[in-house]
Design brief:
Elements lengths: L1 H5 L1 H26 L8 H12 L1 H31 L4 H4 L6 H4 L1 H25 L5 E4 L2 E4 L1 H8 L3 H28 L7 H30 L1
Antiparallel strand pairs: 1-2
Bound molecules: protoporphyrin IX containing FE (HEM).
């Protein structure tokens, strides 16, 4: 068990599993966010309320934050270890066999970390701890009006621009991260590897464009 956390392979394994969990979270998060495009704000507010109050999801949220933390810490340690292990002059000679996207995993991770800080402050912390969301009544029950909070936030041009830039970072990160996670888990197969790579590209494009559409369309249409 100790070697799982301390060895380089163990750290990569934990990072991959954490990454796959986050990849799944993003699909659920995007699905709920797309409800913002319905005629009424009620479906989004009801779904967000369910996510915030359901006991199972509450436990899941603690796991989610833990996994985010684990993924970031292990990514940081592995990046520093790789940098220190690099022979002198390697940087200049640029003999790296890495793909374009994998070279920028650390840079895009920093963009995502800053984005996540701002994002949580914008919605999660504001609504949960700072009383930033109004209360509305739907069928006699109280809900936070998160939809209005999101829509008001995306009326501001520079916020939309920051989201779009950060989401490019997300796309880059997912593009390499998806297939890299499967490779670390040992999937190296003449038939399945190209399929995984294709699914990784498809996933990163669909998820990135899906998230990008939210601030951009809200800014122009709502
Ligand atoms: C661009 C469109 C997005 C919108 C409109 C959006 C909206 C929201 C809202 C309203 C919340 C608060 C939910 C609550 O308090 O119950 C939230 C939380 C959160 N968002 Fe986003 N989000 C977006 C993109 C992202 C992206 C790209 C990521 C990850 C890279 C992300 C990660 C999170 C996390 C970790 C939480 C806290 C956990 C949770 O409440 O589910 N979000 N988001």
């Amino acid at each position: 068990m100790r070697t799982l956390f301390s060895s380089s392979v163990g750290k990569k394994l934990i990072m991959s599993l954490a990454g796959l969990f986050l990849i799944t979270f993003l699909v659920v998060h995007l699905g709920i966010n797309l409800l913002l495009f319905m005629d009424s704000t009620e479906p989004f507010n009801i779904a967000a309320h369910f996510m915030a109050t359901n006991l199972v999801i509450k436990v899941f949220e603690i796991v989610l934050f833990g996994i985010f933390f684990l993924h970031m810490i292990y990514g940081l340690i592995l990046s520093v270890q790789n940098m220190l292990a690099r022979p002198v002059g390697y940087r200049k000679a640029n003999h790296s066999q890495k793909s374009f996207f994998s070279k920028y995993m650390f840079h895009t991770a920093i963009i995502l970390l800053i984005f996540l800080g701002l994002h949580l402050l914008d919605f999660y912390i504001k609504s949960k701890f700072l009383g930033g969301a109004d209360t509305i009544i739907i069928d006699g029950e109280e809900y936070h009006d998160l939809a209005t909070l999101v829509i008001e936030r995306f009326q501001i041009g520079w916020v939309v621009i920051i989201y779009v830039i950060a989401l490019f970072g997300l796309g880059f990160h997912l593009h390499h991260g998806f297939q890299s996670a499967f490779q670390t888990l040992g999937l190296n197969h003449p038939v399945y590897t190209p399929i995984i790579k294709f699914l990784g590209v498809l996933y990163s494009i669909v998820v990135t464009l899906g998230f990008m559409a939210i601030p951009v369309l809200i800014y122009f249409l709502k």
